[in-house]
Structures are given as C-alpha cells and as structure tokens.
Batch of 2 targets.
Target 1
Amino acid sequence: MLKEILIPIAILGGIGLFFGIALTIAGRVFEVKKDERVEKIRQILPGANCGACGYSGCDLYAQAVAEGKAEGNLCIPGTNVTAVKIGEILGIEVETQKTRVMRALCCPDVSKKFEYSGIKTCEAANLAYKGENTCNYSCLGYGDCVVVCPHDAIMMKNGAPIIDPMLCTECGLCAKACPKNLIQYVIGECGYFVACVSEDNGKTTNRNCKNGCIACKLCEKACEDDAIHVVNNVAIIDYDKCTKCGKCYDVCPKKIIKKFCSSY
Amino acid sequence: MTRKFKNIKGGVTLPHKKGTSEISTKILPIPKLVEIPMQQHIGACCEVLVNKGDYVYVGQVLGDTAKFVSAPIHSSVSGKVIQIKDIILYNGSKSVSIIIEPDGKQTVLPDISKPDISTKENFLKAVRSSGLTGLGGAGFPAHVKLDTKDRIPEALIINAVECEPYITCDYRAIIEEGREIVKGIELILDKLSISKSYIAVEDNKPAAFTLLKELTKDEPRIETVMLSTKYPQGAEKMLIYALTGREVPMNGLPIDVGVVVMNVTSVLALFKYCQTGMPLVSRRVTVEGDGVADKGNYQVVLGTYIKDIFEYCKGDNQKTLKVLCGGPMMGITAESYETPVIKQNNAFLFMTQEDLDFIEETACIRCGRCIDACPMGLMPLTLNKYALAKMTEELEKYHIMNCIECGACSYVCPAKRHLVQSFRVGKDLLKKAKVKNG
Amino acid sequence: MDKLIVASSPHIKDKATTSRIMLDVIIALMPTAILSVYYFSYVAALIIVTSVSSCVLFEYLFNLITKKRHTETDLSCVVTGLILALNMPPLKSSIILSVIGAFVAIVIIKMLFGGIGQNIFNPAAAARLFLTASFSSLMTVYVAPLTDGITAATPLAIPEGEVLPSYLDMFLGKTAGSLGETAAITLIAGGIYLIFRKVITWEIPVTYIGTVALLSYVFGQDPLYCVLAGGLMIGSIYMATDYTTSPMTHKGKFIFAAGLGLMTASIRKFGSNTEGVAYSLLFMNALVPLIDRFTTVKTFGRIKKK
C-alpha cells in the first residue's frame, strides 16, 4: 500500500526535478545578452504604449534610445522629467521640450450642404465633398479624436473637440486621427490661439461660418511684437515672438482668438 | 484567342429596370448657363486657357495640359465666359471650372475641319484633340489607351454590355446610330492595324444584338457576341475575362493580355469626330428614377446643370431624395442640383423613398456572401475589418487596391454594412501611409 | 427644397437581412420542435419556451447593462435558444438547466467575446458541453418517446447484446435522445429548406456526414446506424453551418467538415462518451481562424511567383 503511494510520488517528483534542472541549465546556456541600460530606461518610462514617440511600445523606444537610434526627449507623457532621467542613464545631454498644450483650432457655427449617410467617422465623412458642413475646413463632429485618445481627455462640445489639459498627455494621437488637421500644439503655459484654419477668403468664410476668421488683419495691425500674421486668409500666431499681451484678442471682431491655459 | 465564353467569377444578378430602352433620344435645349470643370478625366487636371470676359465658340479648347495622361476640354456652347471658379470634386480634391453664358447661337469655331488621320501617329493625335475619354463612366483618356506603343493588340473589344440597372444610353446609341458605330470600329481596326474585334452585348438586349449582327455580317473582322447578364460584367477586367478567359494582371493594363477595350459610345464619338472635326461637346444621358416624370434618353451639351435636366424632365423636388450621377451600383451622389454634366456621366437617376434602402448597418456575421459576390477574388469582410481598424499593412497584404468598387459585396451583405465606403477610406489611408513611408 | 442625401455607392441593396436569415433557420427547425413535443409531451414544449425566452432575456439585459445597441431583433438569440433546447434531454430538470445553459451560451460564449459575428465557439454547443460537464447525471439520462418518463438509452449508448432500434425508428425519431437529435426526417427536411433558401450550402453537412459514414465503415461499424445516431444530424446541418464559427470560403468549409467527421468518428470508435459531435465541433471551431488563414481565395490577376 505504501509502495503504491510512494512510487508515483517518486516518479512525478523525479520528472519535476529533472525538468527543473534542465530548464535552469538551458536558461543559463541560452541566455540572450541584454543591454542593462534598456531595462533601466524601460523602468522610468510611463508604460502607456501610446506611440507618441513614434515607436509602437515603450519597450521598443527604450531599445532604440539605448542603441542611440532615437532622441531621449521623444516621450511626451513622460514629460521633461523622463527626458532628464534618460540623459542621466546614458550620460548625455538631452534637450527638453517647451511646455505645450493641444487645442482644436475650430469653433464652428456652420450649416449643412447636404445630408450625409454612411460610415459615421470623420475620415469617411471627409471623403464626401470634404464633409457635409458649409465650411470645408470645419470640424465634422463624428469624434475620431475622441475614440483614439488613450486618456479619454477629449469631448465633443458645440461641434468641436474640447481637450481637458488635466488628462491630456500631448501624445498627439488625436492630431494624427483628425483628417482636417485641426488639432495642433500651442506652445506655452498660457496664452492665445486662433480657433480657425479656414483658408477661404473673408467673404466666403463669413458666408459659410458665423465665427470664422475673415482675414481682416486687425490683429496683425494691433500686434506690437510682429507675432501674428494673416497668411492664406487666416491669422497665425508665431509663438516664438508672442508676448501674450492680448491686444489681438481685444481687437478681433469675430472673437475667434481664444485664451488657453495649461490648467484649463 | 479562345472562343469559349466564361461566366465571370462572383458577381450578382440585379433587376434590369431598363424601362427607357424603347424611348428614342430627345435633344435637351441649350441651358441658360453651363459650367465646365477642368477635371473630367482620370489623370492630370487641365489648365484654364481662357479668361473671364472672353467670347468662346463651340468646339474651342478651354483647358489643356502638357502632362501625358490627360485630355483637352472644349466649350460645348458659344457665349461669354462669366466666371472662373474654384470647386471641390466629389472625392474632396480641388479643381477649377469655367462658367459660360451661352448666347444661343451655337456658333462653331471657324477652323474646325475634318482631322488628318492618314498615319497611326496622326490618328492618335486626332484622338487626343477630340478630347475623348472613356464615355462608359471610367473617364480614361482614349488616346493613352489606344497608344499601345510596340504592342499590337490581338483584338479590340467593344463594350456594349451596360450591366448597371436603369442605364440605356449605350443601347439607344446602338439602335439609333448602329451603322456609325460599326464604321467607327472599322476605322480603329484600320488605323491601329488590329485584326479582330468583338462587340459584347448582354442577353437582356436582344434587339441590339440582332441589329449589330446584321450590320456586321459582311465584315469578317468584327464578331458580335452575346453574353449572359451578370453584374459587373461591363467592368473592363471582367469583360476581358468573360470573352477570352485571360486575367489582366494586378496593377496591369488590358494590353498586357493583348486586348484593348472601348465603350460603344466612345467609338461613336470618335467616328463622328473623324468625320466632322467637332470634338466631344455633347453626349447622350439616361434620365431615370421616380423623381422625374419624363424618363428617357437625352442628348445634352456638356456643362448643363442637373437642375436644368431635372426641370425639363418635370422633376419633383419634394419626392427626390438622392441624385445619382451614374448607375445605382457605382454612381456618385451629387451634393446639389448645381452640378454640371461632365464627359463620363452616362445617366442621372433621381431616386425617391421607394427606391432607397435606409436600414442601418449591423455587425458582420461572417456569412461569406461578399466573398462569393466579389468578381476580383478579394475578401470584403476581412478588408472591411482592417479598414475600420486602420491596419494598413494588412490592407496591402489582402490587395485592397485591386478593388474596382463595383458594389457587389455591399449589395448582397445581409448586415447592410458599408463595405465599399470602408474600402475607399482604407485605400485613402494606405495611400497616405505609403507617402509617409516614402 | 430639402437637402439632398450624399452617400457612398452602391445605392441599392439586396432584400436579405440578418434577421430574415435567422427567421429561415427558425422556420427550418419548427418541424423538429413540433415533433419533439409530440414524442416527449409538454416537457419538451416547456424546455423550448424557457430556453428561447432566457436567451432573449439575457441578451437584452447584457445590452442594457453594457449600454450597447440592442441586437435582440436580429433573432440570433432565438436561434441559439432553439438549438440549445433541442440539445437537452426531455426531463423536467432540463427546464432549469436550459436557463443556466442560456446564460453560458449568450453571455459568456457570445456576448463577452464581442457579440454576433465575433464569437469563436458555437454558443449552443459550448453551453451543452458545459451543462454535461457540470450536471452530468441530469444530462445523460434519457427517456423513451411516447411513454411517460421511462428511462431508455440513446442509440449510441445501448449496452452490448441488447436490441438495437431499427433504421426506420431512428429516421422517424422513435428513439431516446435529446429533443431534437432523434428525428432525422424533420432535420433533413429543414436542411433542404435552408439550402433552397440559400442560407446554408451543401458542403458542410454532406462532407461531415459522408466522412463519418466512410470512417465508421472503415472502423467496422454500421455506417447508416452511425449517421442516424446521436447528434450528427442536428450538428452537421444546424450547428456546424453556423456562419460565425465556420470558415468563410468553400475550400475552408470542406476542410472544416472533414476534420469534424474525422474527430466524431474517432471519438465514437475509440472513446466512450456519446458527445462526439459537440466536442469535435468545439475543437474545430478553435481551428477555424487557422483554416481561414490558409484557404484565402485566389485574387484576380495575381501573378504567380516563378
């Protein structure tokens, strides 16, 4: 009776021991030599696998940085803290990024040219005569940006996306998803941005949308720092020169220049 | 060249709805305004060659470009150019169009004369000058198609299949101008030294088949062939396969399998140009759909607004919900009635509530009917999944660029999925990804 | 003037819809369901009603709780409920068990995997096996038809030496078994209706049954008996042909059905349990993505690499 219990235990235990030893030996003999810096860099990365750095995962980015193929400041959710730490691990100087915020440059008050029927995504709707809104540059409102955001930071409100700066990590996936390229980086902690990208002339823009920039150039004349210019019928702010004085904001007749702040 | 006729792989049987086939073509009066876009063909956009305020004649060149794959665009009326405006085409690309106010006199350009077609080179130059593009709906410039350089085609296939429901303009062209069509075929065979031609007619058009057979009985080079009706047999690659059993290679052209295909209306237009020197300025279109009272075929000048056709045919604004340029399977919806007729439009359908299907799409049940329907041997349900997931590598692996957007898959899908639209989005994504990656 | 509608081609569509296809399957199964009530009296009717209504209820609740679009109207839950009911033994205990089975089939096997079109395993077959594994004593006892609850063995489980039922009895369903698997006559009639309505194609049922017949002959068993016995008829016509869990292409369907036949015949010859059809179905369901990968259709104009 005892024999019947002991023999199976011995056999199974022996098999287990054999495989345990074999795996340990194999683990030592066939070990892949890894650069230990890759592991260190990977530890300090946020691990969101968002793809903002251009690599499809934090593992791949850590590898690329250790091999010297990628810059150390590409991790956007990690912010400058990560960039500095990567610099310390590799023993090199890493350039830090300026603070920036993502905003949708559109504030539409448009009507429809036709009834769109089909796949309800911005990408698909844009292929039909550039979308159903009277303004061909305006936001289509189907929320491709909302769906792609890995941090749920975007909400559609009044026909345009609103990005919550508390949740946004500036990974840029929303900007890549927008077929109209409406979502862009705005540099600085606080300041002003032009919520319009319409390159139609003033008369056409005015007819298509009640809010759009009509290229009247009042902002360009009011600015004392040469920071805002009307190019291709739309005002564009040069953030290298902008002193955030707000004169353009005051004079704009359409009130299309809006305030932004990295905390709201 | 094999004499067996194959059934195309896949495809669907559609209701014919050829109610206008026995109504003879009427001529639409010259409208009050015409708009002529500079992009009426596959290839490079034409550049505007006239200015605002110029007086233009019928047949005068309005736009042309030096790029190879293109065709000149001519004025279809005589009158004053009143505006040159920017427009957005149906796929979102930008172009320019010329708006002319006709003076009603239809004065022809004085130096229009019968073209010199003595040699093959001169013939091809003449084809280009006529502004001819594929009038069956494709819009490919004819002179590029016919210029096969060193390769002599084994056969010229004349596409009189007209597989889409409702459309009867090619059929009326055969019934009313069959003799000219046959003469046109003989002309092309002579000039390009092609030894044989096949005219393909589907079996839902027996009168056209009988007439063509009668007209070609003394011409041994032309054989009229009757094929069984299946959509999309009228698509170039499908027709070549049905007649010859040869598959045009992916990214290849029909000349790669030794044939050249021309639409029967294109042949007619080419023959008329070679007789008179008048370039392509008007064409026959089918007007159908329950939104209009006077259905039928109409000869319209290019640039006529759909609005004018609609009013002339006693259209009902309240009932009409969709305006299709083309057939119901591959036609493009017009965004407004202010859309002009261009060279490749062969029909205008004014659809009402009864004609349309408003069921929303539901989840794919993997029934596989789309795979059976696809004539190009693709797997629509897989492509749809990858297109919606934006996975461009897989889209390329499953050959999405081979899709001819015939719509057979969307037609049979029981879940009513927007398959063809997702392929268009997928192709756009793939093109952008290729550009980004170099 | 109202705005025009802009949509992508094509602008006309065929009349077939998902719910119409499911309705055809329900119509095809009706004769079998009615015959089962005739053989096994009101218990059968209660099992069918409970199973179908539980499936519909669970799908409705799942969609409600997860705030997804309601999909009960495509009738696929009704079909699952019906097939699950026809797989249950005609006992009073099956009424409660069918509710549990409905939960497993709809919520776990179908909805949690992504809903219709996304599930890997056949919901009814998987639920059937779950119940057999969990409540084996309640699921392996059967009654003889047209009697008042006298237990009897199914044709595949009759012990050596006892009298086997005649072919006619098995064809008409006068044997013990689950509600739907006995009557070959109504199952085949329903199958012919579905092939005529183009809901299923002949490849899977014919190949599956043919392979089983051939292999049982090779293994020394009676081919006709093996074909008529057990869940082969209902499994091959109604469960293996389920769109979502079978291959997309015709070539793939042949391979799938041949694999099913091989496994079922092997389980019946070399194994001792009688659930050969359900086990082989789940096994081959797992292989369907692999089969799909290797049986893609030939693209038009593909140049073969030299």
Note: The mean pLDDT of chain A is 87.
Target 2
Amino acid sequence: MLSKKGKFSHFFFFAPVLALIGVFIIFPVFSTIYLSFFSSSGKFTFLANYLNVLSRREILNLKGFSSGFPLGALLHNLLWIFIHLPLTTFLGLVLAIILKDVKGGSVIKSIIFLGMITPMIIGGVILRFMFDKNVGIVNAFLAILGVEPKTWTAYPETALFALIFGSVWLWAGFSMVLYSAGLGTIPKDYSEAAKIDGATPLRIFFNITLPLLKPITMVVVTMTVLWELKIFDIVYIATMGGPGGASNVMGLQMYFYAFRQFDFNSAAVVATILMLLTLVVMIPMMTTLRGERG
Amino acid sequence: MKRVILLALVVGVVVFASVTGYAGQKTLTLISGWSGAEREAFLPVLEAFEKETGIDVEYRIYRGEDLSTLLPAQFEAKMTPGDVIFMWGWFVTEKAREGHVLELTDIIDEADFLPGALSSAKVGDRIYGAAYTGKIKPGFWYRKSFFEKNNLTPPKTWKEFVALLEKISKIPGIEAPIASGDGVGWPLSDVTEHFLMTFGGPQLHKDLTAGEINWTDPLVKAVFVARLVPLLEAGYFSEPIEWTQALELWWNGDYGLYFMGSWITGMVDDPDDLGVFSLPGAMGLVFNPDICFIPAYTESPKEAKQLLSFLASSRGQEIQVKQGGHIATNLGVPLDAYPPVDRRVAGVMQGKVAMLDLDDAIGGEFQTTFWDQLKLLWVRPARLDDVLEVLEEKAP
C-alpha cells in the first residue's frame, strides 16, 4: 500500500503527460462531440445534425444500388472493411506461415513490410500510377488475360475497388509481422505431440495454431478495421473521392466539410460517427483480451 | 576586465550590424500554382523585379485547391504564408469582405486594364486584387503538321466538326480524336463551358454563373443531350488523363485535338506548329485573368505593393507575354511583344464576348463538385441526369 507521499510522487510524474492528453486528446474529443449537437449559429439541434448529415447523398446514397456508384462514404468505408480486412489478414497469415522457417525469410519479410513504412501519400501516388491506362502495371498484367486497358480509378464502378485491392500490399506487412511474432510464441512441443498422435499439418493448423493465434487475430482485425475507418490520404491523392464521389470515404468527406465548406458542425458529426464505429470495434477487443488474461 | 568589456562591445556591434543588415535585405514571398514549364516562364518576371528594386523574391508553389484550405486558417490566426498570392477572384473578394486583404485602389487604375479584367477582384468600387496576364480558352488545339499529313481542315459548322472527329478516329495510331485532360478536373470543365457558351449562348453561361438558371433546366440539359453527350458516347473524347501527360500524348500523335487554354503555346516544343479553332458558332470565350492579392498580414506591405504593381504593369506583363502562352490584361503591352502564335490566339477572340470562367467565378463547394461530376459524366455519359441533379444541389 502506497503512502501519501508515494501517491503524490506518482501523480507528480504523471501530471505532465496527463495534461498533454487532456489538452490534445480529451478536450478536442469532447469539444467535437459537443459541436456536433449544435448548428453553425450556436443553436442546440440535438440529433437533427446527425439526421441531416446521414441523409446527404455523399454520406449515404441508397439510390446508388440501382443507378450505380457512389453508394455514399459510409457504405464505401464498410466495403473497405468487408474486402480489405479478410484479404490483408489472410494474406498476412499465409505469408507468416510460408516464411516462418525459410532461409532468407527475414529479408523477404522486410521487403513486404516496406508497404507499412511507405507514407500513405506516396502509397496513393503509386496507386494512381498502378491503375493508369498508359503506364499502369495492373494493365500490363491484365493484358495477359486479354483485358482491355483502362484507367481503373477513372470509372465509378471500379475506382473504389481499385483503391481497396491496390492497397492490400500497403497493409499486409502489418498482419504478417504480427502473425510472425505470434507463430514464434507457440511452443513446438504442441505440434510435435500432435504429429506423433497422427495429426495432419492441416489439422494441426486449424486445431492448434489458429486457436493459439486468436489474440493476435483480434489485434490484427481491430487495427485493420481502425485503419480502414480512418482512411484518407490514399483516397485524397489517388482519386480525391471521385469520379462523382464513387470512391469517397468518411475521412475525406469530413475533410471536405471542415476545410472546403467550413461546415465544422457537419465535420464534427462525421468525426463522432467514426468515433462510435471505432468504439464498436475496440470494446469487444478490449473485453476479449481482458478475459483471456483473466 | 577592460578586455572583457571591449570584447563584449565588439561582439555586440557585429551582432547588431548583421541583424540590421539582414533586416535591411527584404525578401518577399510570392505564391502561385505554376510549376514546371509555367514556372520557368514566370521566373524572368521576378528576376526583372529583383534587378529593378533590389528586393529579393522567393517563389513558392501551392495549388489553388490547397491554398483554399490553408489560407482561411492562417488568416484567422492573422498570419500569411506569402506576401503576394495568386488565387481565384472569388476567393480574393470573399477574404476581402472578411477583412483579410489589403485594398489596392490607390495603386491600381482600372483604366489601364482590359475592360472587365478586374471585375472578379472588386468589392463594390474597391479593388482588392490585381490582374496579371490572362489566358484565353479558345478551343481545340491541333498540330498543323498532323492536319496537313492527314488532309484535315478546321471545321466551320457543327456537321463538319463531327465529320472531322470521325475522320480523325479512323487514322491509324489514334487512341481517340480528342484528348481529355484531367487532374483535379478543371480541363473537363473548360470543355463543358465552351459547349455551354457556344450552344446555349453567353447569356446562358452568365445565368448559370449567377445562379439564375438551374442546371436541370431544359435549356441547359439540351446542350448536353444534343451536343456533348453524343460525342462522349461515340468515344470521340478519351477517358480523362492527367493533363500534362495528355499534352505529351497529344503532341506525340496519340490524339488529334486537345482543348486547352492559351498557356499551351508556352508548353510545346514548336509553337509555330500549333493551330486552334473554336466550336463553330462560338459567340463567347473564357478569358481568365490571373489575380494576385496582398494579405493584410504581410510584414512588408510597401514592398508587396511594389511587387504587385510591377506584376500588373505593362513592363512586367510584357516580359511574361514574350515567353508565350499569356495574354496581357494591361493595355500598355504592344501587340508586337507577343509571339506569332499568341497573336493568332488573340485574333480568335475577335468578335467574341470575353466571359469569366464559370467555376472560378462561383468557387467554393460548387467548383470541386463541378469538376468531380464532370469526371463521372466523361466516363458515364448516361448518368447525365444524376450529374445535373448534383450540380443543381450545390449551385449558388
């Protein structure tokens, strides 16, 4: 049990960082939430702002299901999650397993990890060129299959998917590294014992390895979803959310509201919605991990 | 002790001299969006100013789209990244109304400029921006050698124009008759405005700019349905390509025509090989003066006004027009200062109404929406109704 003096000295050392967190994180968060409930003239609107923002076609455009993209930034972010998440998670796991005991595996892993350390702005520029009709590497590969070249980011039906698939290499390194670390913590005795009992490699993977990687998977899934929710720079550089809003995302729309239209209340609404979606993802992860430790 | 005091005095004098010496050497910062070949053509103007006044000028590149985000926050903090900044007229007048821009009525005389050149930079009778050189958006550029080689002639009627496009499309090696420039989207808006002005008339264009007619109005829609959309559906326009890349591809013969502003004459290897024609029947053309202003938070207002006056003067503009691709707004620039190709461009303007660029005049959210929706229209012309609906939503 700490003495009063001990508690005071703890607080004394924590105080600076608590002050910084208070000023740069806690205050802006609550300030933004507060702003989202008011109009630009300062009138309290309660949920009217939210209803207004969610009814705008740039946020949610259900008509797009019949007329074509855009579907709205919110649904575009969900598409990012549904497509990008399983791809990068699965790819990272497969790469981690393949490169586990391979000679030169660490060098190859470093090369794959380059995507993670590439600034996302540069990633966006690379994506723009990758899908270009005249110079794009994607068209070079697709030409082998007889597909006519086009600038995939210029068309509403393909712009979003081009960005999603094109950015898998940017994030796969993250899941690969985490899974590599996780595989390293699994005692070899388990798999050896299973082999002796006659288990096949596939059975060992599904019954032993995968369950033991559950905490890693939780972290990979959570961090990837958070990345996909806040995606901005790649889209800004590669397509600016176009054509016609077909590749727009919530992060970019928040930027448009705040810094193009100077509609800070709408921007605050989008920010708060993103925060709530983040909590929906974070809370189960925290609960699961705490339960596992317990 | 005496030695210490003497040493301290010497150090103090040296520091004082270097500080005041440094302070005496003014350096202004000028910001505009010109890079590459356009920047190279602009630097001689700044060098002439530096030589004449002894004031150094540091040139920084920022796109207008980025400045429109950056400057409002800086101005609210009573700061500015530049002493003289080139921006859209609507932005200058908006910031002037908010008190962020120095008034220039005392140093700019409207009578020295082309009629209407300063209209986008004025609030009432007060002038807040200076007109530098401007660019005409005269129409479709072609290489004369390409036309000669393929027995092509500029069209005089709409029918001849469509026939020309069909003929070009059949030439081996041609990807599409017309290259479509892209980037943030303004090249497509230039083409669209040319169609609106030609087939809807200058008054329709003015009404759209002023918000006095809807984008969904049958008169507006008719221009798209009858003229632009059929050409898009026929594949006469390429898919949008980054505009400087499109310039290169067009020059190398991948495309026959390229709609671009008169600055193109300063960007090609052989300007004498350039020809241009407007859409047959065009009664108005966009003439866009570049507007520069001085933020109220400049630390060197006197020197900034000197630089701005130089840019607006016939001396400064003559240096620029000699580089090619620019049309002077100052009436004092003689015609023989222009390269031959620009004299021809100025000739295209004869008998036509000079119009402001629609999206530059409206600005704000509409401008970026206009650009983005046209990118959609270009690849999916069947979505015209959706496009016009969105434009009407965001229109003033």
Note: Chain A has one domain: 36-293.
